[in-house]
UniProtKB/TrEMBL annotation:
InterPro entries: Split_barrel_FMN-bd. Gene3D superfamilies: Electron Transport, Fmn-binding Protein, Chain A. SUPFAM superfamilies: FMN-binding split barrel. It comes from Umezawaea endophytica. This is Pyridoxamine 5'-phosphate oxidase family protein. It comes from the Bacteria.
Amino acid sequence: MADLTDRLAFHPGELAAQRVAGTSALAARVRPIISDTIPRGATDFVARQRLLVLGAQDRGGRPWATALVGPEGFLSVVDEHTLRAGAQVVGTDPLAEVLRDEVDVGTLVIDLVARKRLRVNGRWRPVAGGGEVDVHQAFGNCPKYIQARVMGEGPTDPHPVVRRGAELDTAQSVLVSTADTFFIGTAAAGGVDVSHRGGNPGFVEVLSSTELRWPDYVGNAMMMTAGNIDLNPLAGLLFPDWESGATLQVTGTARVRRSAAGSSRGPGNGQETVFTIEESVWAEGAFPAGWSEPVYSRFN
């Protein structure tokens, strides 16, 4: 296990990605926000949230991203080193098996209405009714590119209808090509990250039934996702269907292309990610249905 200094330092992939993007100086200035403890002021924020996005690797080392949903209070800060989630993924989720054991995870506590988010990475251990994360890294992120939404009250199905495949069908392609939000899980250097991606509908392009592309927008300068991909191209994406309550999870390989200077697709930094799908999981009713219409971020 990495020592504390290693956990809080940027790994070689992140440092290289920062150099290429020209964000090294800014990343060095913001690095002190990364801590091995949950910020003292985050306790009430966490307790009010109803959505936790989680990333982990399956038995084959492939990252997936998934979501845990519950009433206010299902998330709690046990102490500054421990985040508790009082919910479990459904048995058909690609991560259901590994979450029965201790495993590295990246989590994102996100308030879409307030456009606030807290990332907590660490070691998951199962407990009765859910799990706890021993914190290795915790830090807040800026509100950029988050579309404000009020959670729908449609119930989730503990036994959703699941379809698996190796490519997107027509309905799934439409969901992706019209998405304004998705989540991406990546892994490298002994840890897992999960992060939010947002933009105006169409910011994710469906190049084919197995290939997607999206621009890399100007963010917090730390280049954690890009740095992970440079070291380990395996990644997993989660696309919620805010209206129907279905979820689309895909796992595959990603590559960051840094020859996209001058791209006009949103507030890009001249880089883009191309993703090749290896497996997809469509789960009907795995997510709350009937979310409000989005209020788009002014940064899109």
